[in-house]
Design brief:
Its EC number is 4.2.1.1. Keywords: Lyase, Metal-binding, Zinc. This is Carbonic anhydrase. There is one protein chain. The chain has helices at residues 17-20, 115-118, 137-141, 195-206; strands at residues 33-34, 48-51, 63-66, 73-82, 93-94, 101-109, 125-132, 166-171, 182-187. The chain is an alpha+beta fold and 235 residues long. A 7-stranded mixed sheet has the order 2-3-4-6-7-9-8, with no helix packed on it. A two-stranded parallel ribbon has the order 1-5. The two termini are 31 Å apart. 33% of the residues are buried. Bound molecules: zinc ion (ZN). Residues 79, 81, 104, 174 line the site of zinc ion. Zinc ion (ZN) binds next to β4.
Length: 235
């Protein structure tokens, strides 16, 4: 019936997503709460190799490889998740700790033409998640007032990501249809934001922030083994 199901409908509670999208009730769903005493060191998880991150930004030239990934991936989308009224708004959490803001950089295997194509592959999508230490109200205020930033580079905002520790798990899109096609990388170190960066770089991210209405991304976390308590960073 709901062929044109939308995140913006008032009945779209995440707990009901599985009624229309069976994957949303699946076994490898995202986001998760990462329990650090349960993670194991994996020597296959090497440093990332970033291509195009030091150049003036051009989405089609950003490549990601290494990091234990099975292929080379290309960037297709950026977006941020944040809380309302200054609250915590990250999607993932670590030992139950939430963060004010979480950046997702979404990549697909180089061989695919679109995100849709990649979703049929269990490792078709590689998503990088970065936590930010502070929420910047300006980011929210600026919605709908985006402007071009001509000389933005990814390295302006992501410091030497190949030196950061990260957590790895196989998960899903965090919105319907919850496709279980995502290799998630959640970086351990949080990123600071300066006022200067807000003025400049975060307007840039808003250019890529058109896919979701984040007010509705209130998904409860799935636990990897799913018998732990469920909670959400949006409370
Ligand atoms: Zn996201």
């Amino acid at each position: 019936k709901q062929q044109h199901w939308s995140l913006l409908t008032s009945s779209s509670f995440p707990s009901e997503w599985k009624n229309n999208f069976p994957n949303c009730g699946g076994q490898r769903q995202s986001p998760i709460n990462i329990i650090t005493r349960k993670v194991k060191h994996d020597p296959k998880l090497t440093s990332f190799i970033f291509d195009g991150h030091e150049n003036v930004f051009n989405m089609s030239s950003v490549r990601l490889r290494g990091g234990g990934l099975p292929a080379t991936y290309k960037a297709v989308q950026f977006h941020l998740h944040w809380g309302e009224n200054g609250g915590q708004g990250s999607e993932h959490s670590v030992d139950g700790e939430c963060y004010p803001m979480e950046l997702h950089i979404v990549h697909i295997k180089e061989k695919y033409g679109s995100l849709g194509d990649a979703l049929n592959d269990s490792t078709g999508v590689a998503a990088l998640a970065f936590f930010f230490e502070v929420l910047i109200p300006l980011v929210i205020e600026a919605l709908g007032k985006v402007r071009e930033i001509e000389d933005f580079k990814l390295t302006d905002i992501i410091p030497q990501a190949n030196k950061l520790n990260y957590y790895r798990y196989l998960g899903s899109l965090t919105t319907p249809g919850c496709d279980q096609a995502v290799v998630w990388t959640v970086f351990q170190q949080t990123l600071p934001i300066s006022k200067k960066q807000v003025q400049r770089d975060f307007f840039f991210f808003l250019l890529f922030n058109t896919d979701y209405n984040h007010q509705y991304l209130r998904r409860m976390k799935a636990d990897l083994n799913s018998n732990a308590s469920f909670f959400s960073c949006f409370s």
